[in-house]
Write a structure and sequence with these properties.
4-stranded parallel sheet; about 30% helix; globular; about 200 residues; 8 helices; alpha/beta
């Protein structure tokens, strides 16, 4: 039987993976991208994001979200796992509008968390199919409420952590935070894969 050689999920070059005791004992995920591709992503200096937005990240997001390459959700799973397993708050991914999710067939924020083995809950639903990326800063600030509580959802007096793929102006996260705080959340923080 032929053994399938693992390949970089971005450039498709063969991956050289050495299984170590550390990888086994510390629940390390196997790498999914090569060192050359990994070096193209710039770590964020912020405590609320993993990476900065750059050309490599733009290409990654396009391939994940718009070309529907759900396998790419695994690319940053180790970093997300390391950062989010320390959280004491309940984690909520920013939801997509149901029509957008049906069109795309998956929620990229959910898939990023699933790939990293991070438990999460859903309490919010998006009220509009408009994307924030199509608006300028002023239009984002003036936007009508983007979220509401899901029917029957109960917000407890606890800490919540919103998770999204990218933060540019922070409008999306602010809208989600307002809904949760008005519904009785104790505290709402956020964490994103990328800061724009």
């Amino acid at each position: 039987m032929n053994k399938i050689e693992p390949r970089c999920l971005i450039c498709t070059q063969p991956l050289k993976i050495t299984i170590s005791w550390k990888m086994i004992l510390t629940k390390q995920f196997s790498p999914t991208i090569c060192e050359r591709c990994a070096a193209r992503f710039v770590p964020s200096q912020s405590a609320t994001s993993l990476y900065q937005y750059n050309e490599a990240m733009k290409d990654y997001l396009h391939q994940l979200k718009f070309l529907q390459d759900v396998a790419l959700a695994k690319v940053f799973r180790q970093e997300l796992h390391n950062r989010l397993t320390k959280e004491k708050a309940m984690i909520l991914p920013i939801p997509m509008h149901p029509l957008k999710q049906q069109e795309r067939t998956f929620s990229h924020t959910d898939e990023l968390l699933k790939a990293a083995h991070i438990p999460f809950i859903q309490l919010l639903e998006k009220t509009t199919t408009e994307t924030q990326s199509s608006k300028n800063r002023e239009q984002r600030i003036q936007a009508a409420p983007l979220f509401r509580l899901m029917e029957g959802a109960q917000v407890e007096h606890k800490n919540y952590l919103l998770f999204d793929d990218i933060k540019t102006t922070g409008t999306t996260l602010q809208h989600a935070e307002q809904v949760l705080m008005q519904a009785g959340a104790k505290n709402v923080q956020y964490f994103t894969l990328i800061e724009g």
